[in-house]
Design brief:
single chain, 8-stranded mixed sheet, 11 helices, globular
Length: 293
Amino acid sequence: MGVFTVDDVALVLEGGGMRASYSAAVIVKLLREQVKFPHVSGISAGSSHASNYLSNDPQRARACFVEFSGDPNFGSLWTFLTGRGLFNSEYIYQHTCGAGQSLPFDYPAFQANPAAFRIGATRTSDGSQRWFTRDDVGSMPELMTIVQASSTMPALMPPVTIDGVEYVDGAIGPNGGIPLDIARSDGFERFAVVMTRPRDYVKRPPRDIRALNRIFRRRPAVAEALAGRWRRYNATRQELFDLESDGRAILFFPETMPINNRERDVARLRRCYGLGMGQINREWPRWREFLGI
């Protein structure tokens, strides 16, 4: 099997917490088929997908969102009540990636990959998005801190500070959680987009804006970003549909999504991954045609 280099298509990766167990199958498929993209953008769980893809590690791409949830340090109500988050993000991103740890990360392979990458996180001060690039990464801990910041669900996980600036989940930023905008601004006109919500999903407004304002009274920009996310998310999805109609995007939407973003049961996550793999295998001829491989 040869390596397939795709020069004019950007890989765009949506987040979605543990729903990424479904989309992890797409990352594994791309790695097994040795498809090389020149540009990869990811937000939230999509930033983990991006890192695993760039390090060429299909085993880790699956384990992150399937078996790893069985780790007793992964997170719980107790870690939430003690200020470490419903997902224990410091442990997940800072104490699992080294040699001999539960999710070793191949940082030299990541460094050697020539593809550009963009990982989005949201500033709590004003709700604006920062795009982290290779210029911001000098070590594996720095990379994992960026992924941690991008993946920090507001209220469920403590914010992450980088260079004195506090960040939360990139999904609440201007694109609503789908990093299409940065790929377009970097000059790409064709896109392979991996989503974690079904095609017919429409995000609804929050039911209680006042509750958001109370929860984030010390970070009002976060409350405002969460309150308006549904509009931005739906608008970006419409952009995707328009690009698809024009033949400029191939979109992966789960045919079904049997779990929520906080799922912890390993058996259910394995089933979700299996559904994703079955779907991408069926759709692969269409992907090959679009990518020209």
